[in-house]
């Protein structure tokens, strides 16, 4: 779970609802597309706020940056009891609709679960995209310890209310996910975001994280610039598996030092620099 250090949008950024041919999505939107547009897709239990620290540096570099709440996440509406609405193919179709609404082709970035959804979108149709970055996302299912944690969540959702599940999940956070310096307003936001997220979305995406197949060879065959970026540590996928995925993809590979599963939060300066370097190289193609 990413913990944004602040909830304050930088000057010039705005929160609004972006209309697409598959409905409206809550977004944070910054910058002008002089050098292109970047679409940022959050991970499991995440939201657009996970990318707040990237908005200013990417916008200053001449990009329009749009971070989104996916269907059923935080401020983007979605059914609360229909898991079929959150099948990976449906979420991927939403990403394609967002890219179309932004005028594509766009630089696509997916964090964690968002990386799997972004991969699925590219495999459905790569034409709305200029490049793909998968951030802290692996080749298939998450690590066994995370699978066990997700199975506990799947067992709890039908029999506990969301507030009780939140309390239980916090108790199960790995030590490296803890941060006693989290500001009170951010802690309150994290709980609010959880309460706003559709239980059906959580259930459907948890099952995807447990059962996701390795689709690296499929993605490698797509003619699109690819970038694999992750922290020096990661508790969702082993970093050696992520590195091997980058090699199999023939992708640019960035390891962000002083970062774990959420480089955009934990080391936004290095993360933004790596993204800009990759996207600048794409412009020279």
Automatic annotation (TrEMBL):
| UniProtKB keywords | Hydrolase
> Which intervals hold domain AB hydrolase-1?
39-274
Q: State the organism's lineage.
A: Bacteria, Bacillati, Actinomycetota, Actinomycetes, Kitasatosporales
Tell me the domain of life. Bacteria
Question: Per the record's keyword annotation, is Nucleotide-binding included, yes or no?
Answer: no
Q: Does the keyword Nucleus apply?
A: no
* Gene Ontology cellular component annotations, sorted alphabetically: membrane
- Alphabetized GO MF terms: monoacylglycerol lipase activity
- Record protein name field: Alpha/beta fold hydrolase
Provide the GO biological process annotations: acylglycerol catabolic process
